[in-house]
Design brief:
The complex is a heterodimer of chains A (317) and B (248). Chain A is of the alpha/beta class and 317 residues long. Chain A has eleven helices and 14 strands. Chain B has ten helices and no strands. Classes of the chains: A alpha/beta (317), B mainly alpha (248).
Chain lengths: 317, 248
C-alpha cells in the first residue's frame, strides 16, 4: 500500500512549507493564519467543507494569489519571491480549470511540457507514455472539446505530470468523475508518490483521503482546526461509535428514541445509530424488532470513521 | 528570475494564442474585415489620391489587426475555465501580457505585411525609407498589441463585452489620427486633438517612410510610440493584477 510505503520512508526535508498565511477579500477573511508542512514523499490531504478556504489556500500555495501575510516555500523556494523557480518544481491540477478544448490531447500535453524546458525527444516520448497510461491511446489526436469530463481530467493530469514534478498539487481531482476515471486518477496519484513525488490533495471524499493520505489537515472558516494522521484523528473521536441495522420493511426514525443513542442517520435501507456504548443499543434494537415484529436483515457495530471525525471537528469549530 | 524560463513562457503563450485565437470570429471581423471596410467606405466613389492616403490606411490596418487578438484571450480563457491552469504553469503576469503582445504583434505584422507587399507591387507606391517603414511597422504592431492587452484587463469572462469596449475606443481613434484627413491639413483644436492619439504618430511615421512628408520629426514619433508601449504594458499589468482571480 502506497501510504504505508510513504510512511516508512525516511523524510529529511519539507516539500511544502506555508507559514501563517492570511488572505482577505474585502471584509471576508478567507484564510486566517494557516500553516502547513508537507514532508517530502508524503501524501497530504487537505479537507474542509465548502467555503472553508481550501481553494484560496491552494491558490496561495500555487502562487496565483499573494497572501496578505505569511509565506510559502515550494521545495525551499519562496513562491512569491521567485515564482518561476517554485512553479518549475510542481504540477498543479486546479479544481475549476481545465485544458484547452481547441487543442488535441497530445497538443495540450506537448505544449505544457514546453514551459518546463523538456527537450523535444523527451517531450514526445513522455506524451506517448502518459497518454497511454491515462487510457487515452488512440484519442491523442482528437480535440479535447469532444472528450467527456473524465477524459478531460485525465488530459489535465497528463499535463500536470509531463515534467515528472517533485510536488503534485491536486484540488478535488476526482469530483464528478466516473468510476473508471476516478480509479485511474487515484492510481496515478499512487504511482507518482511511489516514484518520489510529494502529493498535496484536497478532496470531498473523506474515505479517499483516508485510503491515500499519511497526514491530513482539516480547515474550517479559514482556520486549520486539526492536523494529524487519519488514524489518530479517528481515535480522537473514539467515543463516536455506531450500530448499523436494516430491517425487512421500512420503519420511522422515531422508533429509535433511546437514551444511549446520540444521533440517528439513514443510509439507504440501513439506519445508523451513533452511541458512546453500543451494548445497550444492540439490546434495545433486538427488543424493538421483537416488539414491532420486524426481521433484522443485518446488524453491525463500527468504530468511528475519518468522516465522523471530520463532521465532529467542523461542527465543533 | 530565470531569463530562459521567462522567455520560454512568453513564446509558449504566444504559440497557444496563435493556435487557438487567430481565426476566432471577433478577431477576423474586428481585426481583418473592419479596416478594409472602413477604407473602401471612405475611398470608393471619391477621387482621392491613393498615394497620399496609403500611409493612413496602412496605419489603420496595423492598428486594427495588432489590437484585435489581445482583448479576446483572457476573457475567453476565463469563460472556458482554462485561465487558472495557465496561471499555475511556470509563468508570471508579465509572461502572459508579453505572450499576448507577441501573438497580437505577429498577427498585425503578417496581415499588414501582406497588404503592404501586395499594394507596393500592384500600385507601384513609393517608399522613401525602407528602414523607417520596417521600424514603424514593428513599433506600431507592438504598441497596438499592447493596447489589446489593456482591453483584456477588464474583469469579465464575456468576450463580446471586451470586443464591444475595444471597438468603442478604437473606432473614434481612427477619426482623430490623421487617417482620413492628412495631419498637415489640420489646424487649431483639430490638430491638438489628433496629437492625443497614439495612432497619429504611427501614421505620421508611415508618411515619413513612404512619402517623406511627415509632420513630426520621425524620432519624436518613435519616442512617443515607445512611451505609449511602456504605458500600455504598465496599465495592463496593474489592472490585470487587480482582476487576476475575478471570473476564475
Amino acid at each position: 500500500m502506497l501510504c504505508r510505503t510513504s510512511r516508512s520512508r525516511r523524510r529529511l526535508t519539507e516539500a511544502i512549507e506555508a507559514d501563517h498565511l492570511s488572505k482577505s477579500f474585502g471584509p471576508v477573511t478567507a484564510v486566517n493564519d494557516v500553516s502547513i508542512r508537507v514532508e517530502e514523499g508524503g501524501i497530504f490531504g487537505f479537507l474542509g467543507p465548502n467555503g472553508a478556504g481550501k481553494t484560496t489556500t491552494i491558490r496561495l500555495l500555487t502562487g496565483i494569489l499573494t497572501p496578505d501575510a505569511g509565506s510559502v516555500r515550494i521545495g525551499g523556494v519562496d513562491i512569491h519571491r521567485d515564482p518561476l523557480a517554485a512553479k518549475l518544481k510542481m504540477g498543479v491540477i486546479p479544481e475549476n480549470s481545465t485544458v484547452y478544448g481547441d487543442m488535441t490531447a497530445e497538443q495540450n500535453v506537448l505544449w505544457t511540457a514546453k514551459f518546463y524546458g523538456v527537450d523535444r525527444a523527451t517531450r514526445e516520448r513522455r506524451v506517448r507514455e502518459i497518454l497511454d497510461r491515462m487510457g487515452l491511446a488512440g484519442r491523442e489526436k482528437d480535440m479535447v472539446r469532444t472528450f467527456s469530463k473524465g477524459m478531460r481530467q485525465r488530459v489535465s493530469i497528463a499535463c500536470a505530470i509531463v515534467h515528472s514534478p517533485g510536488i503534485l498539487i491536486l484540488d478535488e481531482p476526482t469530483v464528478g468523475l466516473d468510476v473508471q476515471s476516478r480509479r485511474l486518477v487515484i492510481d496515478t496519484i499512487r504511482h507518482m508518490n511511489e516514484n518520489g513525488s510529494t502529493i498535496f490533495l484536497t478532496t470531498h471524499y473523506i474515505e479517499e483521503a483516508n485510503a491515500l493520505c499519511d497526514r491530513v489537515s482539516v480547515i474550517n472558516r479559514g482556520r486549520i482546526i486539526a492536523t494529524d494522521s487519519p488514524e489518530r484523528l479517528r481515535k480522537t473521536f473514539d467515543t463516536a461509535r455506531y450500530v448499523e441495522i436494516s430491517f425487512d420493511r421500512p420503519v420511522e426514525e422515531g422508533l429509535f428514541a433511546h437514551g444511549a443513542v446520540s444521533r440517528v442517520e439513514r443510509h439507504g435501507d440501513k439506519w445508523r445509530l451513533y452511541t458512546e456504548n453500543p451494548d445497550p443499543v444492540v439490546k434495545f434494537l433486538g427488543a424493538l424488532a421483537g416488539r414491532e415484529h420486524l426481521s433484522i436483515l443485518s446488524i453491525a457495530t463500527s468504530s468511528p470513521t475519518l468522516e465522523e471525525a471530520f463532521v465532529r471537528l467542523t461542527e465543533a469549530s | 528570475m530565470d531569463g530562459a524560463v521567462f522567455t520560454r513562457s512568453i513564446l509558449a503563450i504566444a504559440e497557444k494564442n496563435i493556435r487557438i485565437y487567430y481565426w476566432r470570429g471577433p478577431v477576423v471581423v474586428f481585426g481583418l474585415l473592419f479596416p478594409f471596410l472602413m477604407f473602401f467606405t471612405y475611398f470608393i466613389g471619391r477621387s482621392l489620391d491613393l498615394v497620399a492616403f496609403f500611409p493612413g490606411f496602412l496605419g489603420m490596418m496595423l492598428f486594427f489587426t495588432s489590437s484585435s487578438v489581445g482583448p479576446l484571450v483572457i476573457p475567453w480563457e476565463k469563460r472556458e475555465k482554462t485561465y487558472e491552469r495557465l496561471l499555475t504553469l511556470p509563468v508570471i503576469l508579465e509572461s502572459i501580457i508579453l505572450g499576448d503582445i507577441v501573438s497580437g504583434m505577429i498577427f498585425g505584422l503578417v496581415i499588414t505585411g501582406i497588404v503592404l507587399a501586395v499594394s507596393l507591387v500592384l500600385l507601384h507606391l513609393p517608399v522613401a525609407n525602407v528602414t523607417a517603414l520596417l521600424g514603424a511597422t514593428l513599433l506600431g504592431s507592438v504598441a497596438f498589441a499592447a493596447l489589446g492587452t489593456v482591453f483584456a484587463s477588464m474583469a469579465t469572462d464575456v468576450p463580446s463585452n471586451v470586443m464591444m469596449l475595444s471597438s468603442l475606443v478604437r473606432l473614434p481613434l481612427i477619426f482623430v489620427s490623421g487617417i482620413f484627413i492628412p495631419l498637415g491639413q489640420l489646424t487649431g483644436w483639430e490638430f491638438v486633438l489628433t496629437s492625443l492619439s497614439p495612432l497619429t504618430y504611427l501614421v505620421d511615421l508611415f508618411h515619413a517612410a513612404l512619402t517623406g512628408d511627415a509632420v513630426y520629426p520621425p524620432l519624436a514619433d518613435v519616442l512617443v510610440l515607445l512611451v505609449v508601449i511602456a504605458m500600455f504594458i504598465l496599465v495592463a499589468r496593474t489592472v490585470q493584477e487587480r482582476n487576476l482571480v475575478k471570473g476564475l
